[in-house]
User: What shape does this take?
Amino acid sequence: MARSEELQDALVIPVPEDPGLILDSCRRLLGPNLYGAGPGAVGDCLVKVHDPTEVAALWQGRLAQILGALGLAAAEVRTRLFDGGASLFAPAPIDQLFTAAYAIESAWYFAATELLGQAQIPFEDLMAGLQRVSALERAPRLVALAAEAARRGVDRLLDDDALTLGHGAGSATWATDQLPDTPDWAGLHDIPLALVTGTNGKTTTTRLIAAMGAAAGRVSGLSSTEFVKVGGEILDRGDYSGPAGARLLLRDKRLVLGVLEVARGGILRRGLPIGRARVAVVTNVAADHLGQYGINTVPDLAQVKLSVHRALIPGGHLVLNADDPILVVAADMIDARPVWFSLDARTPEIARARALRAPCGWLEDGRIVLSDGTGATPLVAVSDVPLTLGGAARYNIENALAAALAARGLGLPDDAIRTVLRSFRSDPIDNPGRANEFSVNGARVFVDFAHNPHSIAAVTSALAALPARRRFALISHAGDRSDADIRGLTQGLFALRPDTVVVAEIAGYLRGRQPGEIPALIRQASRDCGLPDDHILSATSPADGARQILERLQPGDLALLLVHDERAAIFEMIGSRAST
Assistant: This one.
């Protein structure tokens, strides 16, 4: 049995089962996170009857008692209250993260049983179990190596069974039970690295930055929601926007420049995988996946996204969207000076940055302009950037600005940045699933993987600016969205002004819903948006819906296929009908 598996099963704590007091989650954070710059463990509780403030105070008190007995830093425990509950974070050394998580769970056990008036296991008995876990987990050589790497300015990546020092071409990896006494420090170093997060646009921005690195002659790579790629080779496909993707990418010794897409879920579940990035980007923040891990509001989500600033090296660039009002407010709460971008040079953050001679970027007279703080460089005309659809796709102008500023922060030359902006396209090769355009029977067909109201509204608003004789749309969704979310998704679709909407069922993604339930919600929302019943068609699957639309297309029409399932089949179907 691996040591990590032994630790996962090392202690069973009989947490009370009560609907009014729920320990919702307890997990280890391996790197910088929402709560701080170092690793630790966090627990989330849901409280329905008691006062969450009182529950959190009792929980924190029990945790301080336990951590004190374990010799850990009880004074640095942090509490975060949210509507209906609280989170408790305990910082811990990298060889005591399981122990810290068990300590949080044990503290909850004592707090909950006290509140419920239940009999308790003797404190000494539970502490004996925690002491055994602490001794089993202790790894002084691991701690010493990580500390020496930090002293030398070398990053580390940690998983349950391996340690990596450095990145890519400057990295070495060892099993945690085979760590060297003295590694070859001369061969270990970090590489230029960017983190990219946000509600929408992060995958496109990640791909742009990596392409700019390649255009500059660097062996560049990325991890993302679609795949992990180094140079021209895709290492694996799947959602790799979490720590596993970072490790797969940064352990490849061919890599000399890396871009990591980091999603909300990965930040909250495990923290950031690295701690020495040169650039971090937050594209925007909008309502998506709220209600998990105590993140219930968009301002809460902004703080999660802004956690990336804690992974920056001194002097690193935090690239932020000045046109996002929630992000602007949230940025005032962190200890970092942002590198702002905006679609308007008169935006207060841009004006202030220019007055302070700080780096920033903006759109002016149809051109993307960058400033290094000493002078402004008109980089490229928006009309020459294919991603922007001639300027109609405003969200891709934002992505281009973010990527260009990030590339400068990584030390890439303007020529490489300009080359990529002029050549990078929304097609299945450069940017699969992001407003990919095809011509079918003289009609323009766009395929997009947009999946939340903000992203759907962005792409439909852009396409609404394009001329069309008739407009078709395919929409479907998984069942894990609320009814209100489904209505919002559908309303966002109607920025396209569709003449016909095809509603598809996704049989494999009902996620607790009844068959037909999601399509019925979409149909009703389409009626509420003014579309007649006979212009709302039903499909048994996304592929069936795509087929129905493709068969109806005539010259001058426009179709938007919002695709979440059967992607390969739909691309193949379009490819068999597409004209060059």
